[in-house]
Each structure stands twice: as structure tokens, then as C-alpha cells.
Specification:
Blueprint lengths: L2 E5 L2 E4 L4 E8 L8 E6 L6 E6 L5 E3 L7 E6 L4 E6 L8 E9 L2 E4 L3 E6 L1
Parallel strand pairs: 2-11
Antiparallel strand pairs: 1-3, 3-8, 4-5, 4-9, 5-6, 7-8, 9-10, 9-11
Length: 115
């Protein structure tokens, strides 16, 4: 069974930074793409960023220039460095992997950005 555990959320003021981590554990041989999603109150969950095992990345327009996704393949861990945070970044952040035909999600970590 695959488990994902996020950490690093918290409360910051606008302009601040946070670094999220998500560690995957269980019967994992190799993870292809790892993702960060977020869900703000009253809104649908949206993709923030993704990174392949080779290091190719993609970002939502709202994250470009402010967030950086990275990963440590040896640790099956994905990170999200978030800088210049805005109140509209307030959301629960989830990591996701697709592994052997199934999607696995973490339980999420809350990020609150105050103005």
C-alpha cells in the first residue's frame, strides 16, 4: 500500500515563504510524475505543479515565478518551495502520485496567508 504524507504548511503573512514536503512510502519501486494540488475554500481542487522522475516540471500560471517544485528520488519525496505568497494562495495543499494505474493522495497540509 502506498502512503503520502505532507508537511510544512502553516500561517504566514503575504510576501512570506513556506516549503512543503511530501514523502511517499510503501511498496514503491519507481514513481514517475509527482504533483502538488491545492483546494481553496469553496473552490475545486487545482493543479499547482508537477515534476517527472527526470526533473521536467510544469506549473500553473498562478505558481510560475513564485513556486518551485523539486524532488528527491532516493527518498521518494517531493517538495514545493513557495515564495512571495499571496492571500489567494490560502488552501489545503495535497500531493499526488499515479502509480501502477492508481492515483494516491495525501491528506493535505493547510497553508494560510494573511494580508
Amino acid at each position: 500500500q502506498v502512503q503520502l504524507v505532507e508537511s510544512g504548511g502553516g500561517s504566514v503573512q503575504a510576501g512570506g515563504s513556506l516549503r512543503l514536503s511530501c514523502a511517499a512510502s510503501g511498496r514503491i519501486f519507481r514513481i514517475n510524475t509527482m504533483y502538488w494540488y491545492r483546494q481553496a475554500p469553496g473552490k475545486q481542487r487545482e493543479l499547482v505543479a508537477g515534476i517527472t522522475s527526470g526533473g521536467s516540471t510544469n506549473y500553473a500560471d498562478s505558481a510560475k515565478g513564485r513556486f518551485i517544485i523539486s524532488r528527491d528520488n532516493a527518498k521518494n519525496t517531493v517538495y514545493l518551495q513557495m515564495d512571495s505568497l499571496k492571500p489567494e494562495d490560502t488552501a489545503v495543499y495535497y500531493c499526488k502520485i499515479a502509480y501502477i494505474g492508481m492515483d494516491y493522495w495525501g491528506k493535505g497540509t493547510l497553508v494560510t496567508v494573511s494580508s
